[in-house]
Amino acid sequence: MSDIDHNPHAADSGHLAAEYVLGVLDAEARRAAERRIAGDPAFAREVAFWEMRLTPLADAVPTVEPPRHLWG
After folding, report:
1. CB of 21 within 8 A of CB of 47?
2. What letters, b where the CB count within 10 A reaches 16 and e where it falls short, cover 14-53?
3. What is the pTM of this model?
4. What does the pLDDT read at residue 3?
5. Three-state SS string across the chain, please?
6. How far is it, in rounded angstroms, from Cα 50 to Cα 44?
């Protein structure tokens, strides 16, 4: 990916969709993204694209139970 964004809004939308799919948004941003998915068909397609791209990667990683001492 280049350091130059020719369409910053589109790039931001793509990044937000990918972050939503990865589950790295905080609760407020996640709720905002869910509202946007419901009301913005282009954004919903972007999320679907990232789900299609990233799900196989997640499926390839074995599940690991976190050590008990991490749960406070």
Report:
1. yes
2. bebbbebbeeebeeeeeeebeebbeeeeebeebbeebeee
3. 0.69
4. 46
5. CCCCCCCHHHHHHHHHHHHHHHCCCCHHHHHHHHHHHHHCHHHHHHHHHHHHHHHHHHHHCCCCCCCHHHCC
6. 10
